Amino acid sequence: MLQFFQSFPLDLLLIQTVNGIVSGLILALVASGLTLIFGIMDVVNFAHGELFMLGAYLGVVVLATTGSFWLALIVATLIVAILGAAMQIVTLRPLIGRDPLNTILVTFGISLILQNFALWEFGPVARKLPEPITSYFTLFYLQYPWYRIVIAGLSAAIIGGFWLFLKYSKFGVWIRATTQDRVMAQAMGIPVPWVYTGVFAIGAAMAAASGVLFGPLGSINHTMGLDWVLKAFIVVVVGGMGNLGGSIAAAIFVSLLESYAAIWLDPSRAVIVSFVVLILTLLFRPTGLFVPTPK
Amino acid sequence: MSAVADISSEPLVRVEGLHTYYGKSHILHGVSLEVAPGEVVGLLGRNGVGKSTTLKSIMGLVRPSHGQILLEGAAITGLAPHRLARLGIGYVPEDRRIFRLLTVMENLRTGLDRAGVGDERKQKLLDKAFTYFPRLAERRNQAGGTLSGGEQQMLAIARAMMLEPKIILLDEPTEGLMPRMVSQIREIIDVLHNEGVAILLVEQNVPLTLQASQRVYIMEKGSVRHHCAASDLKVDDPVIKQYLGV
Amino acid sequence: MTTAPFHKAMPLGKGKLSHTAVYWIGFCAVMAVLIVAPLVLPIFWAKFLTEILIWGLLAMSSDLLIGYTGMISFGHSAFFGLGMYGAAGALLQTHPPNLWLAILAGLGGAAGAALFVAYFSTRLRDIYFAITTLIFSQIFYVIIFTWTAVTGGENGLIFTRPHFSIPFLVDMRFNVLTMHWFVLALVAGSYLLLRRITRSPFGMVLQSIRENEARTRAIGYPVERYKIVAVMLSGLFAGLAGVLYAVQNEFAAPDFVFFVTSGDTVIFNVIGGIGTLVGPIVGAGFFQLLRELMSRVFGEQFPYLIPLGFIFIAIIIFLPQGLLGFARRWLNR
Questions:
Q1: Do A272 and C308 touch (CB under 8 A)?
Q2: DSSP code of A91?
Q3: Which chain C residues touch A272 with a CB distance below 8 Å?
């Protein structure tokens, strides 16, 4: 009996739990942006992963020029937010009123452009974003890096900040009013086309911030967007489409499961976990695992 | 039309020869009417003659295929609804359509949060809303969807008032309300009139309309068929029977 | 993405050819060109043309879903890839490698994938369907990529091209010309078959689903069953394209099961014009030609997908019917 407990990787489990929560919070930030855009504008932003990727690359560039991780985070987020707004105005506004499937196609086209632009501009060799904080602390008898905790904290802070913004600020009220009744929102003087642009910019900003925050955790290359957008889509479906709280819960849930799976499987197979979760969700609770009551 | 407009008689809102389609259905067949500043004008007619569509056209929610709409002499046809709201047109639709998941306060805020309105003015407007609608003050932090039908109607009107509009388009405000509330609506229309806000009132309730309005238009099959001062008509007038009788 | 109601063939005008006659004359003309082309083109371009036909078949299979049933699929890479691997498997197992077995195996593999995708995906509408097909195709990719023992993993499978053999009648190797004609025959046959299907009562129901799914269901059609059949058919033809690709190029690689293939397919469809069946083939040709041209003019490293991406977006916004969209009604009569 004792032998079993001795061989059971308890410490590994704990480390992976923390890891799972850390990457789960980053995924939650990415998925929140996606859910926001879908829930409010009915747009499936296929290019969301590429916005994440661009954020990471811009982070690398800004960090290289200024030496500050925090500046990199802010600048990259701002630039991508503006890019997102431009994207929405040029390619998505003309599609308002048309079949929403067109938005998938158009954002898919944009993802192609952004991906190849990154390849062209930054080359095929993966980049690395150095950690902002290099100190460690002891978790049980292992050293765990502080920066991962900081990143998790920042992701949570951004999500929380956004939630507050949505609830209490003027623009937040505008967003919520527009979501509930687009026509009456306009009749109340709310400039709905600009609300949409703003929402898209915020979603893009969230993706970019996640990219920068993820930077130190892995390698940055031009194809990383697809992996992340796939995971984000899974999270959004599992969490219940358009349900912000659900996405966050689902993100952490899926990430935890994957982290645990990584103890026994190698990483390229650990992704199967998220696929299995999706399939099970679709089979038994298609409206979402974390939706209060299935309709 | 005279070359120089007589400013004192320039209507606030003028609709000229409006034709509107829903898909292939020709709903409005050349509607023309006008509302003077501060005037209460009634729009009567059976169900489906195009009264609501006329209001929606003025609010920019439906694009007319022909005709124009003028606000204080300037053409506003085709402008986006949110611009019209900012220019001074308030809209209270049939079935109220308040934001159900927003609180009463937040509903009012959607009209209050405008550029160029200082905090003081906002507070005065809020106070005014709560004075006229004390029930809303009591429920200010409740979600709009939890209010009763009558309270929601009050909220819809109060919300439009927050825009400080020059004209309010009221679409069947007494529909589905108890008689007690109907007289409340009547009072509110009077209050608004006294403040100088014009009202274009679409209603099925003939007595209310005749009492509250200065002039009335009667529509049938997508165009205006009769137009006179409200005082010229009695409830049992043959004209009323002709266009509104069953 | 709606189309005009189906029109019956117009009655014969005085001295004018009927629609049917014009159509078949056009068809024969195009076929003649495609048959003769490899005889006059240099080998590179002949093979290029053959590949366009194969991609065209893949895109055409996708058109059945996008253009006629109104379901956007990002999962065709799975059908294509499984067709490819299925054929590869058969070609590696049998000695001598048998062409017909390969086709059967490929179609079987694609059908299996299609059934899987269809079952889940038809429970979801529109956008959710599109996303789920994407996720499922990636599932297949991961399986193929990591199951190295069976699929050769990263390196894929290499095999020899089978002979074109009919027992007791013929047994010959393929050369560039005969390969092309074989592919052309299968692609043309598929086109005619798909055309027959889209114009049949079954096809009419599919189009009705595209126009208004709720109403179709209200009338009493078992919409889910129709969708499943549509996905199966689409998967089968996509699988056939995979088989042809494998036979022509003598390898199977996981890259083709990757999302990019699905993405390309959708691009061919949109550029060429959905709901036309031939449009996607034209779209495939347009895309490949442009790519070839750009790499020749600007060099191999030129990110040709950037200008192509812009063209793609521009077509969605300004020319949503695609290049051949103007002919859509005519082609479907």
A1: no
A2: I
A3: 139, 142
Return the partners of chain A (3 or more C-beta pairs < 8 Å).
B, C
The per-residue pLDDT for range C220-266, each reduced to its tens digit, is 888 888 999 999 999 999 999 999 999 888 888 888 888 888 989 99
The residue extents of the domains of chain A are 32-220, 223-295
CB atoms within 10 A of CB C27: 15
Closest residue in C to A104 (Cα–Cα)? C127
Q: In this structure, what token pair is assigned to residue A152?
A: 């998790």
Find the mean pLDDT for residues B6-23.
81
Nearest to C64 by CA among C178, C207, C200, C188: C207
Q: Chunk chain C into consecutive blocks of 10 residues (it has 333) and report each block's average pLDDT, rounded to whole numbers.
A: 49 65 88 89 89 94 91 90 90 83 90 86 75 85 83 82 79 84 92 92 91 88 90 94 91 86 91 89 92 84 86 91 82 78
For residue A234, what is the nearest residue in chain C, using CA coordinates?
C135
Q: Complex ipTM above 0.90?
A: no
Q: Report CA torsion sign: B208, B213, B214, B217.
A: negative
User: Which structure tokens are listed for A2?
Assistant: 């004792």
Q: For chain A, which residues lie within 8 Å of any Cβ of chain C, measuring from their own Cβ?
A: 44, 91, 94-95, 98-102, 104-106, 108-110, 112-113, 115-117, 119-120, 226, 230, 233-234, 237, 241, 268-269, 271-272, 275, 278-279, 282-283, 286
- Regarding pTM above 0.95, the answer is no
Q: What pLDDT, in 10s, does the model give residues B49-90?
A: 899 999 999 999 999 999 999 999 899 998 999 999 999 999
> C278: part of which helix (H) or strand (E)?
helix C278-298
C128: closest chain A residue by CA = A237
For residues A73 and A59, what is the distance between their CA atoms, to the nearest angstrom? 6
pLDDT of C304:
84
CA C102 to chain centre: 18
Residue (of C198, C189, C187) closest to C275 by Cα position: C198
Which H helix or E strand runs over C40? helix C19-40
Contact state of C139 with A275 under an 8 Å Cβ cutoff? yes
Average pLDDT taken over every residue of chain C: 86
Interchain CB contact of B122 with A (< 8 Å): no
Label residue A5 by pLDDT band (50, 70, 90): low
Residue B170 C-alpha, separation from nearest chain A C-alpha, in angstroms? 13
Contact call for residues A259 and A210 (beta carbons, < 8 A): no
Structure confidence at residue C11 (pLDDT): 53
**Do B110 and A192 lie within an 8 Å CB cutoff?**
no
Instruction: Tell me how far apart the alpha carbons of residues C14 and C11 are, in angstroms, rounded to a whole number.
Output: 10
Tell me the nearest-neighbour CA distance from A35 into chain B, angstroms: 19
Residues of C in contact with A278 (CB under 8 A): 132, 135
Give CA separation, A216 vs A201, A210, A212, A256, in Å: 24, 11, 8, 19
* The CATH number of the domain covering residues in B35-61+80-244: 3.40.50.300
Cα–Cα distance, A83 to A31 (Å, whole number): 19
Residue with tokens 């048309």: A98
Domains and CATH numbers, chain C: 19-261 (1.10.3470)
Say if residues C44 and C176 touch (Cβ distance below 8 Å): no
Residue B3 has pLDDT above 50, yes or no: no
Task: Report yes or no: C267 and A110 within 8 Å, Cβ to Cβ.
Answer: no
d(C-alpha B197, C-alpha A173), whole Å: 27
Nearest CA distance, A150 vs chain C (angstrom) = 31
Q: Which residues of A touch B168 (CB under 8 A)?
A: none
Rounded CA gap, C144 and C255, in Å?
Answer: 10
Over 90: is that where the pLDDT of A210 sits? yes
CA angle C235, C237, C243 (to 5 degrees): 100
User: What's CA A36's distance to the chain center, in Å?
Assistant: 11
